[in-house]
Amino acid sequence: MRQLIVQVPRGQGKEVLEIAKSLQGVSLAQLEAKGSEEPIDLVLIHVSNRQVEELFAKLEDLPDVNITLLPRGVMTLHPPAKEAPQQALNIEERSPIEIFLSGLQSVGSWRGFLGYAASSGFVVWIGLYTNTTYLLVAAMLIAPFAGPAMNVAIATARGDRQLLWRSVLRYFVALAVTIAVAGALSLILRQDIATSLMIERSQVSSIAVLLPLAAGAAGALNLVQSERSSLVSGAATGMLVAASLAPPAGIVGMAGAIGRWDLVIDALFLLFLQLAGINLTAALLFRLFGLSARGVRYTRGKPWVFPVALGFTVAILAGLLTWQFVNSPNLQRSSLAQRANAEIQKLVNENRLVELVEANVRFTRANIKGQNTLLSVVYVQRQAGVTASSEEIRSSLTQAIQTHLLQQGFNVTPLVDVSVLEAPQKSER
After folding, report:
1. Cβ neighbours of residue 18 under 8 Å, at least 6 residues apart?
2. Which of 96, 314, 315, 389 is the most buried (most CB within 10 A)?
């Protein structure tokens, strides 16, 4: 339920009340007041969220009308009293005009926006430099990437070229500030090598596209839902949107400062993938909930912008995914490591000489020209009754693992370290 205060010339208040009644308005009131120049009527209206845009459309025909929309939901309890519980449960999605106006409000201030972008750069640098994971979470919370990303989707759904341009500009300016801050700190403090957390966070999974798709849907739903109808806070969805933005932005700056261009490429891939994925699902959901090129008090939308912008988004997404899957394993390291681990465990479990204790598989960022190094550290224990020496077991199992991984089509150089562990001998009494 939304509350509106409508100001019209004296004598027009009755007509406003009739319009509100036709849209099932409740708790209506008309007051006579003195405006800055002439007497006026003030009308208090409470209507459901879905009726707000239609109410705006009908009030547009009145002369000299001024409308104040209170953006927060209100709870109207009116007779009969027995329906109060049902009235309290009457929570609906925001109207398209509210969603659009909230997007416009968020593109106003540059000073605070850039301040948050710089702060996130400092925090993400400290987290990556000191290998402190919780600082990356803090950087996600303060990174201002969610607003521009969602406004790109709103502009796409509305067909608003001006808002689309301003939102894309803010998105890349925020990224540039975060990247510049992280890079400057690495240069000032003379960072020479990539930290383990930088290497870990730069590795891309083959299912990386699912995160921005989910983030776009969650962000759109958060903006569409009334604040009292969602159990998920805006900060949580904003963090989801920034989850794969703040760390890659910091990695771009830090890796660029130390000349690790392989890390830079992987991080830039994630940044572009995030924006395209968010825009695709969020724009489609906004259209589903009623945002269109033409609306009340909104005339600058162009119907052709939506299919063009959406098609451009799909083309970017398809290009990025094609690049990801054609250039294996560069942009699939995380998921390929999991697959390789599964293959190694399967192979060892089928071996009659040993029992698997543990297998750790990961790609390294060793600067060895011409190879993609996959490091496998495997711990095994000999089975009871096996008389082969530890060296014989280690040698045969190492060769078997390397041969198997190459036969499975992994485009890697598998370096395998097998350790044969011995169980303690039972003491005889």
Report:
1. none
2. 96
Residues 315 and 174 in one domain: yes
Using 50, 70 and 90 to split pLDDT, how confident is the model at 176? Answer: very high
Structure tokens at 278: 């968010």
Between 1 and 9, the more confident residue is: 9
Residue 346 counted as domain residue = yes
Q: Express each pLDDT in 225-272 by its tens digit.
A: 766 555 555 555 555 666 668 889 999 999 999 999 989 999 999 889
Domain that holds residue 178: 97-327
Pick from 160, 146, 153, 167: which is nearest to 289 by CA? 153
Q: Are residues 34 and 163 in the same domain?
A: no
Which of residues 79, 113, 145 is at a domain's end?
79
Are 393 and 316 members of one domain? no
Q: Which carries the bigger pLDDT value, residue 107 or residue 157? A: 157
Is 249 a domain residue? yes
CATH of the domain at 392: 3.30.70.1350
Same domain, 183 and 278: yes
Same-domain check for residues 130 and 267 = yes
**Number of Cβ atoms within 10 Å of the Cβ of 109:** 10
Write down the pLDDT at residue 369. Answer: 76
Residues 239 and 110 in one domain: yes
Looking up residue 321, the CATH number of its domain turns out to be 1.20.1080
Strands 39-47 and 26-34: antiparallel
Predicted pLDDT of residue 320: 94
Per-residue H/E/C for the chain:
CEEEEEEEECCCHHHHHHHHHHCCCEEEEEEEEECCCCEEEEEEEEECHHHHHHHHHHHCCCCCCEEEEECCCCCCCCCCHHHHHHHHCCCCCCCHHHHHHHHHHCCCCCHHHHHHHHHHHHHHHHHHHCCCHHHHHHHHHHCCCHHHHHHHHHHHHHCCHHHHHHHHHHHHHHHHHHHHHHHHHHHHCCCCCCCHHHHHHHCCCCCCCHHHHHHHHHHHHHHHCCCCCCCCCHHHHHHHHHCCCHHHHHHHHHHHHHCCHHHHHHHHHHHHHHHHHHHHHHHHHHHHCCCCCCECCECCCCCCHHHHHHHHHHHHHHHHHHHHHHCCCCCCHHHHHHHHHHHHHHHHHCCCCEEEEEEEEEECCCCCCCCCEEEEEEEEEECCCCCCCHHHHHHHHHHHHHHHHHHCCCCCEEEEEEEEECCCCCCCC
Total number of domains in the chain: 3
